Amino acid sequence: MQCGMLLLCSRHIKQKENDIAICECKYKANDPDSACGERCWNVLTSIECTPRYCPCSIHCKNQRFQKREYAKTKLFRAEGRGWGLLATENIKAGEFVMEYCGEVISRTEARGRSQVYVSQGLKDVYIIPLNARECIDATKKGNLARFINHSCQPNCETMKWSVLGEDRVGIFALRNISVGTELTYSYNFEWYSGAKVRCLCGATRCSGFLGGKPCGFQEDSFAWEKNNERYSGGDKPSSSLGPKKRLKHDHNGGSRPLPGKQVDAKYVAQFLASKDAQEEVLKNEEERKEALSHLASVYREIEPAIEDHDMYGPANVLTDVAEQWIGASCRKLKAEFNLHSSIIRNLICPPQRAPEDAKPSAGDPDHEIK
Ligand SMILES: C[S@@+](CC[C@H](N)C(=O)[O-])C[C@H]1O[C@@H](n2cnc3c(N)ncnc32)[C@H](O)[C@@H]1O
């Protein structure tokens, strides 16, 4: 199997000078936030400043991955969940907790490895997605972040950052975390495991199992193992906790389900009185189909970026990708609106009717054309 690089090591690819993002911050001694704080353009776009290029030089605060500015933590035995990680200092909301380190491998490699791990009887899963093409595997090589357990109501989250031109994943506090609290984040991404693991996070709104999102190679079945409460061995989950259906790739190539309820325009058109009205509705239906197929082709093009968005939030979607998606979505919505409004308009207020049809039958005020 081909093995990728290890994030624990410092640098692998030399970043091209042209690709270095340089912010416009100016260090002011009386304003600590001036040196690459929350207002820094790089911070806002989840990019770490590059040493020697940052205008704030040694004062730059936006090199947390590079300088390993981790929160203080310690391992503890988490009941029923193996090892876990505790905060040994107060951590403020938004603070960087630590990087998720491990081997960077392709998604194909991750699938292969996960099958090998399952066959070797390894129960704990340490593979998380890095971007649309790669994963981080901390099974054999990693840092303390590999011990952070899942919670359905987590106090931390994962976020993708660009560090010296490479994607890296960090754990960040979602809220203020006081000393002695267990650190958790949601494993709500592709679940690289052979079995669904019963969640013991104890949250009131616990989803029941680890790994919320369906993953290409994962079977839609539970591996019921005896005498192991962590692996769905005990009482069976209620149907609401049952396996989620995997999203199938639809005919349009998108892995997203398209809207369920659709008007059957051809069927509706036959009830319209005038030929003009029928033609208008059918023309709008054609435009709606075109817009839908355009949206599907845009989706195919930008699928990797959309997947990144799902994993790490809107901050990671490039502007041109977002614009393409919004443009195609708006076109589809507009076409749908035109279709629906033409149907309603032509049903309620037909443009013209033949004189015979238009004549209300005597003594029947309900049939009067308004
Ligand atoms: C990244 S490891 C976390 C560290 C792990 N507890 C250990 O001892 O090495 C992920 C594994 O921990 C266990 N785990 C994490 N969160 C859990 C939870 N909420 N309920 C049950 N098991 C959990 C599962 O076995 C999962 O595959």
UniProtKB/TrEMBL annotation:
Residues 268-295 form a coiled coil. This is Histone-lysine N-methyltransferase ASHH1. Residues 195-211 form the Post-SET domain. The keyword Transferase applies. Residues 354-370 have a biased composition (Basic and acidic residues). It is found in: Chromosome; Nucleus. Residues 71-188 form the SET domain. GO terms for cellular component: chromatin; nucleus. The lineage of its organism: Eukaryota, Viridiplantae, Streptophyta, Embryophyta, Tracheophyta. Residues 228-261, 351-370 are annotated as: Disordered. The keyword Cytoplasm does not apply. GO terms for molecular function: histone H3K36 methyltransferase activity.
